[in-house]
User: Fold these one by one.
Assistant:
Number 1:
Amino acid sequence: MKRFTISKKEKQLFMWIVKEKGFDKDKITHHGNQFLIGHLKLGVRGTLDGYTKEEKVAIHLPMVYDQVDNLWREPINAFNPLYTEVMVNGVILSPLISQVIDHEISLDLRYGLLDIKTTYLLDEIKVILHAQRFVDYTKERAIVGLFRISCNQDAKIDIKTGIDYDVWDLNGPHLNHIERKRSPYLSVLGMTEEKKRRIVVKKDVTFFQDHLSKVIEENKKLLIHTSFHAKKDQTYGFEQFSVIGVDDDENELNHKLNIMKHEGYKKIFTKHQKIWDKMWQYANVEIKGDQSADLSLRYAIYHLLILSPNRFMGESIPARGISGQTYKGAIFWDTEIFMLPFYLNTDQKSAKSIILYRIKGLEGAKRKAQSYGFQGAFYAWESQEDGYDACTDYNVTDVITGRHVRTYFKDKQVHISGDVVYAIDAYIERIKDFDILKQGALEVILEVARFYLDYGVYVPLRDRFEVWDVLGPDEYHERVHNNAFTNQLFKFVFGIVLKYEAFFKEMDAQFFHQLIAKLAYDKPLKLIHLYHQKIYIKKENHAGIIEQFDNYFKLKDIKLNDLLNQRIHQNEYLGGHGLAGDTKIIKQADVITMLYLFKDLYHVETMEKNFLYYEPKTEHGSSLSASMYALIGCMIGQPDYAYPLFMKSATVDLTGNSKQYAGGIYIGGTHPAASGGAYMTAIYGFAGLHIGKELSVKPKLPKTIEQISFHINHLGKLFKVVVNKNDYSIKEVTHD
Amino acid sequence: MKRFTISKKEKQLFMWIVKEKGFDKDKITHHGNQFLIGHLKLGVRGTLDGYTKEEKVAIHLPMVYDQVDNLWREPINAFNPLYTEVMVNGVILSPLISQVIDHEISLDLRYGLLDIKTTYLLDEIKVILHAQRFVDYTKERAIVGLFRISCNQDAKIDIKTGIDYDVWDLNGPHLNHIERKRSPYLSVLGMTEEKKRRIVVKKDVTFFQDHLSKVIEENKKLLIHTSFHAKKDQTYGFEQFSVIGVDDDENELNHKLNIMKHEGYKKIFTKHQKIWDKMWQYANVEIKGDQSADLSLRYAIYHLLILSPNRFMGESIPARGISGQTYKGAIFWDTEIFMLPFYLNTDQKSAKSIILYRIKGLEGAKRKAQSYGFQGAFYAWESQEDGYDACTDYNVTDVITGRHVRTYFKDKQVHISGDVVYAIDAYIERIKDFDILKQGALEVILEVARFYLDYGVYVPLRDRFEVWDVLGPDEYHERVHNNAFTNQLFKFVFGIVLKYEAFFKEMDAQFFHQLIAKLAYDKPLKLIHLYHQKIYIKKENHAGIIEQFDNYFKLKDIKLNDLLNQRIHQNEYLGGHGLAGDTKIIKQADVITMLYLFKDLYHVETMEKNFLYYEPKTEHGSSLSASMYALIGCMIGQPDYAYPLFMKSATVDLTGNSKQYAGGIYIGGTHPAASGGAYMTAIYGFAGLHIGKELSVKPKLPKTIEQISFHINHLGKLFKVVVNKNDYSIKEVTHD
């Protein structure tokens, strides 16, 4: 059993503040993710004010998708209104070229407030630059900041602050027909290629002191330039306000900016804080005895909070959150399986939004099924707006030959449709929001079942309904037959049809019959009744192991490290025809994910045997992997096996220890599914929460953790759960 | 429409003699194949007497399989009893190092007689070496030869002739525990690794003149050394006789060799000629107006004759004939589909042997099916003795990475089982040998049908029986669904079950019922009745094209040459994840093969449209390809399209223009399936022979061909068919 260790660095983390000291050029990209702020419609990467596209600055607009030529379709980045450049005595200050004697970047998780303080030494003058920023939660897309400068000697200071319209893109440029305006505010306007959406970024500043300033333009930047003589040890600077519009009326944006300027930084921040305080009231989890676990989990929850769709009903959460264009800014099964549980406990409106997104996507899913010659709903592997699948047939590059690799995520990873149904059922069971069935969820269920009926095959001699030619969660083994996980989902989906058929026959038979008639669903319904019991479910073999798919047991046995040592290039993609394809090495939890999602169907002994069998064969090459092992680790009574896997999930965006490349493709960014998985491990694993009619717990705390406490929203009531080593309490508490 | 051109060299070929003049080191390997002699149990490559393993000398023992360690299992090569080394005035003569002023190697197709004449210039002395050899058709494994030497000046001559036991192997060494004996004859004995088979090679010579000689041993050669002073312009030399034993009694071999020596070269050759004369009586095809086509086709037929299994009932023909260890000396579908038609017309005993081989292989085929979890008979892709599948999961090497490539020939190319049934039915329909059904052929049919029933799947919503996850004949596209060819074979096999069920219900119901009971075949039979009409048969699309497999039409359009230009290494394997995998470029005839094999089911218009669609997309990277296009070319009334494809098939082993490497694997050798395909094109294409109750022809002669004439054995009668541009005749003739 391999163990993950926790670095000293992780142990030094404070309770609410994530902080990094010292300047390290190699961490610029990682810090962009680590110190991300924003919300589901606006991501601002944790880069310095003086950075440009080279340092992966991004004012990211999730869900505003655009495609240039035949490049990958992805969400766009807007022009950067945070750009500020400082010269002291005519010399530009930048940590990339200047002498830095102190540098600290910190994120206050409580309010999503980023704070960057850098001390430079310039010809014996100490200069301190201190910037703060937050994405204003009281508005749709607005950023508020504070920028301070002080020197320990008198000096001449030049500040240039404005909008950098040279945008970092993976597959751009997306914004063209650029217009600049200097009044009433600095404004840069551009238009997306595909849908001609109008993107506007506006900015203004309020200087602490009155300075003469002029608007200049240089290096694709529209800037306010001011120059003054600074006195020793006095603080200069400005408050800054920016708004970003997507197809918004320009006058309204000007008006909005005008109000912000009048309110000022402090007033806006106070309002902003109230929203955050309320979010944390439901979401916070406290861990005692293990500060590192406590802060790491809080950091994970911070990411889930900034991604809450509750203000944007019908939107869902991309796999890389709001951290950039990686993975085409698309929504994967990550959201339904790894994030939804958090929102079900803490923020049911966000949970509902995640479901509504898939209901909205039904037509897209039907179109996708049709494009492959299937009936029903085949949900997108990489889902953009309206369920459009942005996944391509060549999602990886062969680093050895430079050729595109044909991958099968899009066309064979059919479990995604079942994951959507799994989420719908979990949502309804939890929230008792049966109305959503009539609002489209039942149609989603029926169309997914129809797709599964059409995709699966009946094998007459075996009298079985089988599922051939799929990818399971473990993407290293393509086009396998009877993936245990996928087959279990097929049976589940058919079962859900029968369940809600029974439900509606009781509650509203007319609605059900009308829907069946409207969808021409008589025949599928009959066939679902016929095949539901015939779906091939893999049983444990003599050793208690469930074979991941047909003939998995016949694959080559090899140790993970031996496999990795065979690489010719360190970024070699291991799946498909790569090194792992014909071995037992798997990318991520597969059978183990099935055991967790269908935990009621399996004995603990089966979980234990499969955990011990599969874990050493698992690369954990996906951020979806560790948490599933951690959860099963707890269920088999081994929270200390689970603990390092929990920490791996919770800290992935803190440490930056994640894959940055798949083959030749950049895949960096944040990992909200790992964050969700860390939350699940804490609540369902360590605390052992079980949500039936009542709440109950079966605590399995790892050695270092003395207590876990958290709130759970359950059927309209709020409960506080406190779990200690030897006792626990579950108490109803009042809430707003 | 691309055209193959015929080289001047091809045009210069004589009628019965295939001849190459001049020495070219680069052609040594090719000549080894081109000038091959032997029969189905002994192949002797066309190499010079002084050559060794470096020049790929092989005394090949087809069907004597052996495996060393985990290397590929292959037939062995025996010790070489043809080795002869000549010194003149103390200098060794060899075309590799000496000055050659004339060199001619020729093969008399009429008798399988190889003749090699080399004139050397050595210090102003002209020395002529002249060797002849044939594999004695009156015995099981014996070689007879004549070796002559003359100089135009007096000289001292040394001859060393004997057995070279340093054997060329692809995956050897196979022969160990080597023993040498000097009397009564030179003998070398060895033992195979796996089955401990005893291989013995014995040789003796009769010198023209009496010389003193002694037996010596040097460089893994056991040699008779004689030395004498030769007079100017006088011929010296010897007759040589060799026998090769496989588990044979040594005394009997000695006795056999003794008799041969007594009979002498000429007497043996006379007996040998009689056998050949009779073979040609049935087999010869004469083409008038086009000498090149005439000789090329005769050369192709020569190869089919040396491969006739008629003396070795129950044996079948390897894909590379008797030319060496390539393709593991295994039998492929080549034999059933591309060679059997020749034997059905000319030598029905050989045809029967080919069928018996598969009946013998039934148990092996059942074992193979079982190993993959299927019922019934899954015939070997590369079939060795008892139906053992020698194909490995890694049949190709990636030339860029040096890694083994997972190929799917063995586990997914299920059409092989149907090809066997196709051959059985063709044999019975032609020969009316219904007894063979009771001798195991019916059981083969039933078990293949059972396998197909278990392999195929029923798709409920479409109410269709489909065939997923196969390789069709075009091996560049792996793991496809509903390959048109394969599906048609499934339907055919089910249909054959129904056909013989009806036959036996009429003729011998008791036998049939007993067999059904013995095989527990009630349920499969019911299901075959049920699904026979539901098998998904691909229809022509709006443009008349039949899609090779599901979604083939969605693959990338690219020109063959553009694809080839993308290669990084010229021997790159194009299939699987290689360059062709996601394009429409195919290795070989696939839909076109289906159209030919099931020609009664398709209109000529369909054939024409599909020919024009698929031909430009076909690499013809298999020797099975050109002839199918040639046959369909004739059927659509375009014999001039067909002609170059016919010539490509007929001349492949004459010109050596074939792939020598697949990925990193040597695949050289002869191409009897191309030979069979050339024969089929001449008879069924150009002459347009149709064999119903009566024979009939629909001639489609290409421009250059004025007349084709040949014999056909039909229901015990022999017919001579003569086809001219504007008329034809079919006449019964007497035969032995």
Number 2:
Amino acid sequence: MSDDDRLARVALTWLTEPGTRSVHRLVEQLGAGGALELLLDGGAPEERLRAAVAARGRDGDARAVAADALARAARLGARLVTPTDGEWPATVEHLRRLALPGATRRVDVETAPPLCFWVRGGWPLGDALDRAVSVVGARAATPYGVHVATELGYGLADRDWTVVSGGAFGIDAAAHRGALNAGGLTVAVLACGIDRPYPMGNAALFDRIGEAGLLVSEWPPGAEPLRPRFLVRNRVIAAATRGTVLVEASARSGATQTLNRALAAGRHAMVVPGPVTSAMSVGAHELLREHPSARLVTGVAHVLEEVGRIGADLAPPARAPQRPRDLLDDEATQVLESMPRRGATGVDRLAARAGVDVRTALRKLSLLEELGLVRRRADGYALATGAAPASGT
Amino acid sequence: MSDDDRLARVALTWLTEPGTRSVHRLVEQLGAGGALELLLDGGAPEERLRAAVAARGRDGDARAVAADALARAARLGARLVTPTDGEWPATVEHLRRLALPGATRRVDVETAPPLCFWVRGGWPLGDALDRAVSVVGARAATPYGVHVATELGYGLADRDWTVVSGGAFGIDAAAHRGALNAGGLTVAVLACGIDRPYPMGNAALFDRIGEAGLLVSEWPPGAEPLRPRFLVRNRVIAAATRGTVLVEASARSGATQTLNRALAAGRHAMVVPGPVTSAMSVGAHELLREHPSARLVTGVAHVLEEVGRIGADLAPPARAPQRPRDLLDDEATQVLESMPRRGATGVDRLAARAGVDVRTALRKLSLLEELGLVRRRADGYALATGAAPASGT
């Protein structure tokens, strides 16, 4: 989509915190530019949102702030990714339907999909998240937890799974490090600007992640790691991966909330148990007791056993080997399905049957020929052997 | 029942290992004496059993061996408990219905109720097992497991629950010790004669249990702790208590088999998790992964939360507050229900309506008067206010 759309998404994220459901709905109805205009004109559908926009607006001009952020990102070698980009991770769109049972707190209600991501690192974001598992847990992890998280990070990366976490001290850092040590791909989803990843103590780790993996954030460069942002961010960690593994957590910790979001999103929710004598395993054991669908795992093999399956809310990846026909766009499919089952036909007749113009028909026929689905003969075009139309198979 | 029955049960246990289903069925059909005669006459219904009886028979006269065992037990201050004794634990009769999924091994199939128990210690066996929880686990327990089992034993005993285990090294011993340290009741269910409890290294512990709790075995004094007997014994540990807690277990250990028996018997099956890095927790985690009805517990509070509820196979205790009427025997209830709803009536007429003799009617009326349910008036007996018969409420 246009630069306007991109700028508007950045401006909207700055004006209102990510995840705000009413903003996401406005963008769907009016486009990002229209939604931004409405909000700046004081037309936000909720009083709270109107006040928030007005307050931010007094700090600066939203479009100018957004333009600055984009310029700053360009200087950092970072990029903005929006839903129309090829690398947009489709899985985060499932957040549309996310509903946390008994949600009353703002962070539990405002769990709409992100409007954009800031990304630093060479991999296309969507590809990196295609086969990904989150590993989360306590910042004040014990040596036991750090050991387990490192092993998990290493083992998953070693089997070509991307390890996603939040870049925090403790379990998060151990999981990232394990993945890096395996020479694998790891993604840190931050709750602040990717130019100032938090915590500072993990700066060297963030540098390695930025080089070998991805640093990702919904917040623009320069944004501060405010406390509520971690919980807002957790919905992305939960939704963007096939499953989340909780390694250590005290009672009611942020990590247990990530797992609750994974459960609500229909992702695989996995928990590593620990000594019952450890306060850092209380949250883990609580989750296992309270959620029958949270699965106890003791290592990589168990995790792979889970995420290897298809979760209820995930688009099922093609099970059958991909055939050329699966790659066709609508028009090419129409042309292919309009081919006579026996004998050949001319382009004009085919275009008429397929409901496309002759120029398009010729373009699609050349593609179909390339894919070995159609043969050009003296008397026109014919189906190649074994290429009966999908509707006839 | 008669001394003959008791002697026959001892002889049958000596001739055939405890738990043999066909022997238990014969006892139900013919009585213990009849079953013994049939077996000694070579009439066992299965070839394997016939051979086993014949082999044992060459070692001695079954009745003489049984008489010796009874005499030996008397000298030890031990007693034989059979199903007609008041202290027989009714819960072990549920073993009639126990069926282990996919059972093919002898120890998984031959899980019939015991024919008798040898008991050493002052408490009536049934009373001791009335509010009881089993705590089982690895012999090669880690300090972590020993700590947890000791705490569980202590905590359960402290709350007036009997702690049942197998007297083995490791988890078993820790659970018994915890209970003893709390000044509570603990029962060791042995797989050998109660005069030679195994292992010898726990001799001092067995002495304490024999004084403050109970040593129990299905095998007669002098019986050796043969390896298969431990698994046979485990069905009793599982069935005689409201639930079994597994603390530490390597993969496929005897303790996990006790828990499987608890699950099959409809008892509460509870598992304490541990570090995933410990080989001694592998069996525990396996059970939690494989059995949705096995419950993760981290301490006494969780255990009590489970066993405090009514298990499928347990007689439900009265939920409503007990009223005087609930204490009445059948005759008293009949008399009460025969009272006219209004006005008074004479004893003769009441006795006739209730279908009891006058003497009984008078006795029951005096009880009902005592309980405040009936009033004696000049014109006979009348219901006290608020004491309408149960059928009328």
